[in-house]
Amino acid sequence: MQGHELIKKIEKERSAHPDRIFIKWWRKEEDFIDFDLVTRFLGNLNHASEISGFDLIDQDEMWKTVASRTKGLVVKVQPNGTWILLWTNQAGTETEITCTECPYTPDTLLKILDAETKDNYVD
Asked: 83 and 43, same structural domain?
């Protein structure tokens, strides 16, 4: 699936489920899985790129993915009525995110997942 066909399918699903702000996608080779915000994915999409499939997921599902993958290094807490993430960054992991008490935002979830998987998520 590529280009216009891919955009149409994503937009159709996004219209039916506006809370699903993340895209989980994979190539035909199924050698890795990638995650991104749907809006950023569509903005960066190379119409010649071919992907095998995708799922749109909401923030709760993305949190479950991060929590599962990090095996206790990230905890979601609500100390003062606002959700935050407590993250224990593995020693030596270079990342663009520097917080240990991080906001519970879509961007933070992606950055932590990328840091913990070294940008190479394999299911």
From this structure: no
What's the CA gap between 59 and 89, in Å, rounded?
A: 21
Same domain? For 120 and 75 the reply is yes
Say which residue the tokens 């100390």 belong to: 79
Backbone angles phi, psi at 4, to 5 degrees: -60, -40
In which residue are the tokens 């895209």 written? 23
Tell me: do 53 and 68 sit in the same domain.
no
**Residue-by-residue pLDDT tens, the chain, 123 positions:** 777 889 999 999 999 999 999 999 987 766 678 999 999 999 998 878 788 899 999 999 999 999 998 888 999 999 999 999 999 877 556 667 778 899 999 999 999 998 888 776 665
User: Looking at the structure, do residues 28 and 73 belong to the same domain, yes or no?
Assistant: no
pTM of the model: 0.86
Let me know whether 36 and 71 are in one domain: no
CA 9, CA 39: separation in Å to the nearest integer?
14
DSSP class of residue 14? H
CB neighbourhood size of 65 (10 A)? 19
